[in-house]
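ok trying again, last paste got cut off:
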Amino acid sequence: MKLMSLFASKKESKEPTAVSPAPIQDENDNLTFELEGKTYSLNVNSAEERERVKKEVNANSLAKYDWFEEEMGEKHWVLYNTEMYEVIHICFVGSFLHYSESSTLAPIIPINATSCFKMFEACRNLTTLDLSRFNTKNVVDMGSMFFECENLMSLNVSNFNTSKVNDMGYMFNGCKALTQLDLSNFYTSKVTNMSYMFEYCTKLIQLDLSNFDTSKVIYMWRMFEDCKKLTTIYISDKWNINSVKYSGYMFNDCYSLQNFSPEKTDIEMAKPVEDGGYLTLKK
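nice, full thing came through this time. structure:
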């Protein structure tokens, strides 16, 4: 299969991009959503109601939909487009929804979803991915979301709402073709895991993490390992590593960072250059 671009517009608009809706169940597990002009309501924990709504949706829609029970995130019942996503099962890992590379549809968040775990993992045919309309306001798990998307040269996550996310481990790991990444909108005050987050992003030249609040992060294992071309990592006064307990080899093989020493690759170097570290305080 040849490499694909999803989905760059021919003419860039200067207007802000509106994200797609992201309906979510309430505290009583009731869910109301709209598809192709029709409104549906159900209690998602009722198998009978899920089957009823599935039949109604598939009778009224050109696309086909099915239910999937999340094993990550809040473990919701999720309604997904079967032409857009497939269910993958990995032994000792579990089951998750994965974007189907045979699809030509622009990805949108499945209905009632709280997990993006491994959602685009190893989509090696993708070269460009525009997720500016991808609504993540209810997502709590982004672990391994773009893991080993090794041919992805352009990734737009600039509209991501990460206010509820607690896991970003392996999120961009192995994105070897990315040269830049706009994370200026990322809100990370609830994130506890950033291990391996940028590992093997071998073409990234700089990272602006100045909006990252890391006060609750516990895991930073190999966070930037093998980012060989990375010259600058910007941080702000939100950068706080007091809660980090696991952080070995954090800057391993980051040869292009200012003052880099192969003997100094652990958490003690996660501080501004002025204080003897590898990071740049953004002013």
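cool. Residues 28-62 form one domain. The chain has one helix and twelve strands.
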